[in-house]
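Attaching the record inline, Q. Sequence:
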Amino acid sequence: MRSLRLYGKQDMRFEEAEEPVIKNADDVIIRVKAVGICGSDISRFNKLGPYVEGTIFGHEFSGEVVEVGSNVENVKAGDRVAGCPAFNCGECESCRKGEPARCKKLHVMGAYHPGAYAEYAMLPAENVVPIPDNVDFDTAAMIEPSSVVVHGFYRTNMQPGAEVAVMGCGNIGLLAIQWAKIFGAKTVYAIDIDDAKLAIAKEVGADVVINSKEKAAHDQINELNGNHCVDVAIESAGSPITSAQVFALPKKGGQVVFMGIPYADINIVRSYFERIVRNELTVLGSWNAISAPFPGKEWSTSVHYMSTGQVNVKPIISHRLQLRQGPETFKKIINREESFGKVLFHPELG
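Structure, as predicted:
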């Protein structure tokens, strides 16, 4: 079968691989219809995060069940599904407490387990999420990043009528805008330095878009709402700069949720850091997309709101490509040769 395998730093190869074979009674083999590039894939490709040399890459995907093990009851051949790519050990303290996202050995397929940049992928039945007919495969391939976002919102104490700022309008930020509305936000401020991304943010539901390149976002928000600040600030850019600036956005007693991961040290100027103390902010980290019972309500909730159209990923998808275009596409992304939103591969196309 066609696949993308990672052999080393920036060494991804489009090549033939053996198709998965049922080995366990709970195995499910899925024909991959759509699989997306995640920011963590870019990092692993560029900097070599956890991986096994030659492992098939990728983890955000949807497809059709082709074969199941003897004990599988939740899906059957022909069913349309998405894959939850996370694996937790089930034995550490966090797992025993019903907190799988905090598992000490948490990892996703495409690292130590063959991934989804291939014509076929295999997962245990509990990782397979059925999707309704009105959720297309491209949309379903983004259930995983959607679940990452809603996992973060579940960590807040956000109430209907809240004002929310989303800092960074990449794929996660654009989903966060929509989830903020679902959670009852009265006003959502979308912040970025790229006007094209801000245009998409407006399309998916942002009430106010703010380009922070020339003037600090918190100053612009204060001018707009009378020095009121926001109830919840989402950091979704994963930038060292925004990871410091985000502390200036919430009001006294407000919350900051970190969904992005800055791959560099963060230097926080005193005026920003002091706000954590003086404004008694709650600072929350949010990791992965799973909870108990596994894989968690994040997944069923994402499927529901995608089926109603309240989570709309179509404006976020910028490229639909053949799998063979993978190596060149990854290099273009890290070299910033082209503007990319969410990139999806369709393995059946070649």
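The chain has a mean pLDDT of 96. The first helix runs from residue 39 to 47.

More tomorrow.
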